[in-house]
Write a structure and sequence with these properties.
Helices cover about 60% and strands about 0% of the residues. The protein is mainly alpha-helical. The chain has one domain: Orthogonal Bundle (Arp2/3 complex 21 kDa subunit ARPC3). Strands 1-2 form a two-stranded antiparallel sheet. A hairpin with an 8-residue loop joins β1 and β2. α3 crosses α5 and α8 packs across α10. This is Biotin transporter BioY. It comes from Baekduia soli.
């Protein structure tokens, strides 16, 4: 009904009017950017490199064993630094890589497994084994491996191993945790003064520690880039 024209018979009464509403047109939506996380869920959402691999408990067990094996292999690269009773080895490099690749929990487990294996098998530096090594001059460094793997793994879980500079600084800091335990242990076990313990247990290893941190700082970010590339192609 369009309306009523007022006349004599309906003058003074309300008049009805028909109101037409124009249909509301939907506003065009702008295209949303495609999330790279959705495209590459494994390579970008993983906390550490090990999380890219499929599996759960069996995978974790194999990774922990691999971390222990890597440290055992690094222990066989041993360079004596007389008169220091502690040689330069590839162990700390292995610890750094294991911690970053496995994360805190699995990194700690891998180094605990390594220390326990050394009680029975010749996997310590220079093929040594037995409890006397743990209680000796090098024992503090073995304990430090466990702590360092946990700290580096925790940092890696927050992305500290994905950029070369940050990774190298993180790995250098992780090695300091090894010396923080190893030097006092060396002082007591070898009955050294603080000056000698710091010199023979830390100073002589500074250059090697820097080289290992830089090397690992190149390896782990490169592994992340490779993982993203492979995952993107898949």
């Amino acid at each position: 009904m369009r309306g009523t024209i007022p006349g004599p018979q309906n003058r003074g009464q309300p008049t009805a009017r028909l109101v037409r509403f124009a249909p509301r047109t939907a506003e065009p939506k702008e295209p949303q950017p495609v999330s790279t996380v959705a495209l590459n869920p494994r390579a970008t959402a993983a906390g550490v490199l090990a999380d890219i691999l499929p599996g759960t408990r069996v995978r974790d067990a194999l990774l922990v064993a691999s971390g222990a094996g890597l440290t055992a292999l690094g222990a066989q690269i041993s360079i004596p630094v007389p008169p220091s009773p502690v040689p330069i080895t590839g162990q700390t490099l292995a610890v750094v890589i294991a911690g970053a690749a496995l994360g805190a929990r699995r990194g700690i487990a891998s180094q605990l497994l390594y220390v326990l294996l050394g009680l029975l098998l010749p996997v310590y530096a220079d093929g040594a084994s037995g409890a006397h090594v743990v209680w000796g001059s090098s024992g503090g460094y073995l304990v430090g491996f466990v702590v360092a793997a946990g700290l580096i793994g925790l940092a890696a879980e927050h992305g500290a191993d994905r950029r070369p500079l940050l990774a190298a600084l993180t790995f250098a800091a992780g090695q300091l945790a090894v010396f923080a335990i190893g030097v006092p242990w060396l002082k007591v076990a070898a009955d050294l003064s603080w000056g000698d313990a710091i010199h023979y247990g830390f100073t002589v290893f500074i250059f090697g520690g820097i080289v290992k941190a830089v090397l690992a700082g190149v390896v782990t970010p490169s592994a992340w880039r490779l993982a993203r590339r492979v995952d993107g192609r898949g």
